[in-house]
Amino acid sequence: MQEAQTLSGATPAAADQAASVSTARQWYVLVVLALVYAMNIADRYVITTVMESIRIDLKLSDSGVALLTGVALALFYVTIGIPVSALADRFSRRNIIAGALSLWSLLTVLTGLSATFTQMLLARIGVGIGESGGTPPSTSMLADTFRPAQRPAALTVYALGSCLGAWIGADLAGQVADLYGWRKAFIALGIPGIVLAVLILLTVREPRRGAMDQGARAVPPPLPLAQSLGFLIRQPATMHLMMGGAVTALWGWGLMWWTPTYLQRAYHLTAGEAGEILGPMHLIAGSLATVLTAVLMASKAMADPRRVLVLMAVVVALITVPSFFIYWTADLGVAKLCLWLFVPAMYFYIGPSFGLLQNIVPAQMRATACALTLLMANIANLVIAPQFVGLVSDHVATGGVADAASLRFALLLLAPTGLWAAYHYWAATRNILAEQRRAEGLAD
């Protein structure tokens, strides 16, 4: 027959065109959600870039500025995150993302307009509430936009938003702070987020849950929150994967939270100069590591999730060594070299972690699983790490006034925790295949 048709009745040309449109739509959603992630991370990095200026302006101790900049955001981020993720498993994820982005962008602007400690504290609490509605519904949407085999690579591309956001918050925001003051840096970051939220409402569609899963089976209704949490806690590989991500965040992002301040104190740099050092590392090395990881995750060699976990364990363990020498050395050149090795390692694990997680939990609890992972990670890197470093720095400071030496000592205590993270990735290899089959409904 001249007019050969597919089983669905469409001609091959029409089927190819539909596939092309579908692929373009998938990539558009992925890019837009990566930009949302970038706005989230940029907000975190601008406050670390100008943290020393905030501390001096408001006359705070190291532990006091850690409370204001990290803990205030995290306490509400982690407490609101799981209820918001439960809503994302039931209602429109697109609308939740757009609303959350609008809220935290507006509160970022208000952070820059804050004149007192209390005003900034309230603004950061609001930012934390808004940011809780960003990543869980985004990763859940991407799981329903890409097939299981594509998810680790897609979630790794999504993680590029982290590199872009860190560069914006470190380099660009640092330059704005040097030119116009630290308050203007927050205002410059908040306004684009509101514009992006409107774009999402106008151009992104809500995907059907479970549409891309094997066999495209109908997704059961969401479980009660307590039941979902109980299920996840009983899965050993899932919990080791979550713990690995949390401790990696404690180690990597915890160190980077204080690194701009450390560079400014130890080498007498401005916020913009510290940002010029760190920004390109995030944008270039972080992006390169993320893209190469995406390519690797899409290869047949990484089809076995156990290989992905072993790779993550080995890389994190090896990079723990230069992470220690960043703060041990008194030579800025050596510190830069170690940072060029350390910064990429903070990014390569994000996409594979989220991708594996989406594959080993049932479709109806993916947003909840992501939120639990983020809760653990953000308690680690926004509450425990900043406050631990700040308290130790204040405690050992000569004359009770924190300086470069006291901050160096605290950061050296935190650096070896990378080895702890590597252990959890290794331990997850024992049960991950069984849990993946269970999530797919293929277990006996």
Topology:
Layout (H helix, E strand, L loop, with lengths): L11 H38 L1 H8 L3 H27 L4 H21 L3 H15 L3 H9 L7 H8 L1 H21 L1 H22 L21 H9 L2 H32 L3 H27 L7 H24 L3 H17 L1 H11 L5 H31 L7 H11 L3 H11 L3 H8 L5
Helix pairs in contact: 1-4, 1-8, 1-9, 2-3, 3-5, 3-16, 4-5, 4-6, 4-9, 6-16, 7-12, 7-15, 8-9, 8-12, 11-12, 11-14, 11-15, 11-16, 11-17, 11-18, 12-14, 13-14, 13-17, 13-18, 16-17
The CA-CA distance between the termini, in Å, is 45 Å
Biggest β-sheet strands, sense, barrel: none
CATH topology, which one? Growth Hormone, Chain: A
User: Per CATH, which architecture?
Assistant: Up-down Bundle
The proportion of residues forming helix, as a percent range, comes to over 70%
